[in-house]
């Protein structure tokens, strides 16, 4: 019996029409396909909402990083004041200047106040004259000195002394360098829109607080006791660039890199201390404010000056200090005896803190010692490691 033939079926595939898929909420945040919508929505969201979105799912985890180049574009904001933002940033880096004031608040908050200006802080001297010349020749500005110039003790390293002591509330304590933006109190300032006093209350301060009140910030003298549990970290010893700092790296393409390392600024420390305002006999209400504590630390084996928060600061005085003294002594013994002055030799013999203050005498004798600033970040990490170990054992 012959085998049965297989029948071949020529069945055409059936075309199925599916209804168009409705866009989801996530599609609005797909910057690869819906960028204009994505950018518009994100520009209206506070930073707290953006951070919350990054924690919802993996798909949105990179939302903040994606927005950094556009939402926090420093050159676009500087264009309000200068023709060449990158040129200005190169000058800021070259002359140890800092941008601060309301400009930096607007940068972090992503708003623009038309009546605001640009505040640049710089130590008086050749750098200030060079920056002034740049503004006049390259940007077409003119300078007038109708009011006395404000004097601050020190250059970029004195961020805690110059900026903290120069402003009235925690909201304004933010800075921009040539390559980084720093918000020192981001949680109260930009998450909760609250600001705390850094000066005793006056009529002038009241006008400033009223101005920021209209812009959306509520003011308070100091933290309430019940708030210290959640916000008390702002009262700890701080260093600029620590985990409590909101730090935004800026686009440095086309900006000249200065010789001074970022660590000079980032390893300067300060601390807020609660103060009681002067009380007269006829007053019944106590009023408080915070005072920024920052002292200068310098050594002849450090190329730059730093700040520490008080004389109980164990990192600078108990950890770095002795190391600097020993390295200074070691380096001085490398200098021929004939090149040392009697004052230098006597200080070496006493092995006292005076070793840190030999700068002028060494300059007079034309003696230059090597610098150990590059060791500071590593020493800080080791100090924190030892401190954590001690704290763990004490519990």
Structural notes for this entry:
There is one protein chain. The protein is α+β, with helices and mostly antiparallel strands and 395 residues long. Helix content is 39%, strand content 11%. It contains 17 helices and twelve strands. The protein has helices spanning 25-28, 35-44, 47-54, 63-71, 74-78, 85-94, 102-109, 126-138, 159-166, 186-191, 203-214, 228-231, 263-266, 314-334, 342-350, 359-364, 376-394; strands spanning 98-100, 119-121, 174-176, 180-183, 194-196, 218-220, 238-239, 246-249, 269-276, 288-293, 295-297, 306-308. It has a three-stranded antiparallel β-sheet with strand order 3-4-8, with helices on one face. Strands 7-9-10 form a three-stranded antiparallel β-sheet. Strands 1-2 form a two-stranded antiparallel sheet. Strand 11 (295-297) and strand 12 (306-308) form a beta hairpin. It is globular, with a radius of gyration of 29 Å. Mean pLDDT is 86; it is low at 147-157.
How do the helices and strands follow one another from N- to C-terminus?
A: HHHHHHEHEHHEEHEHEHEEHEEEEHHHH
Using only C-alpha atoms, the radius of gyration works out to 29 Å
Counting DSSP E segments of at least 2 residues, the number of strands comes to 12
Count of helical segments?
17
Class by SSE composition: alpha+beta
Please tell me the overall pLDDT. Answer: 86
Distance between the termini: 95 Å
Task: Tell me what portion of residues adopts beta-strand conformation.
Answer: 5-15%
The biggest sheet amounts to: 3 strands, antiparallel
* Outline: globular
The neighbouring-strand order within the major sheet is 3-4-8
Helix content: 25-40%
Low-confidence stretches: 147-157
């Amino acid at each position: 019996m012959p085998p049965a033939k297989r029948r071949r079926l020529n069945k055409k595939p059936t075309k199925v029409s599916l209804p168009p898929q409705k866009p989801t909420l996530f599609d609005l945040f797909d910057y690869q396909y819906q960028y204009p919508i994505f950018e518009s929505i994100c520009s209206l969201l506070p930073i707290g909402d953006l951070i919350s979105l990054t924690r919802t799912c993996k798909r949105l985890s990179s939302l903040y990083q994606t927005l950094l180049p556009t939402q926090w574009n420093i050159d676009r904001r500087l264009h309000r004041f200068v023709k060449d933002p990158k040129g200005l940033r190169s000058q800021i880096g070259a002359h140890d200047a800092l941008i601060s004031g309301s400009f930096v608040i607007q940068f972090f908050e992503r708003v623009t106040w038309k009546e605001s200006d640009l505040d640049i802080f710089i130590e008086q001297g050749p750098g200030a004259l060079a920056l002034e010349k740049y503004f006049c020749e390259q940007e077409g500005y003119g300078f007038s000195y109708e009011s006395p110039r404000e004097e601050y003790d020190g250059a970029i390293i004195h961020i805690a002394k110059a900026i903290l002591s120069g402003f009235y509330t925690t909201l304004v304590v933010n800075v921009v360098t040539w390559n980084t933006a720093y918000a020192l109190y981001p949680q109260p300032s930009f998450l909760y829109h609250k600001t705390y006093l850094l000066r005793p209350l006056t009529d002038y301060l009241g006008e400033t607080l009223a101005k920021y009140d209209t812009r959306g910030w509520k003011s308070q003298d100091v933290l309430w006791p019940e708030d210290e549990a959640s916000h008390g970290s702002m009262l700890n010893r701080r260093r600029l660039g620590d985990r409590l700092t909101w730090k935004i790296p800026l686009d440095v393409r086309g900006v000249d890199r200065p010789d001074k390392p970022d660590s000079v600024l980032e390893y300067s420390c300060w601390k807020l201390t609660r103060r009681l305002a002067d009380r007269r006999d006829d007053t019944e209400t106590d009023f408080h404010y915070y005072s920024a504590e920052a002292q200068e630390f310098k050594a002849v084996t450090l190329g730059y000056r730093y700040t520490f928060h008080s004389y109980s600061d164990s990192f600078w005085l108990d950890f770095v200090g002795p190391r600097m003294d020993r390295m200074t002594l070691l380096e001085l013994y490398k200098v021929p005896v004939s090149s040392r002055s009697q004052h230098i030799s006597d200080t070496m013999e006493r092995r006292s803190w005076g070793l840190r203050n030999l700068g002028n005498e060494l300059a007079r004798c034309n003696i230059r010692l090597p610098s150990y600033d590059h060791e500071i970040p590593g020493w800080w990490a080791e100090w924190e490691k030892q401190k954590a170990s001690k704290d763990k054992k004490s519990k």
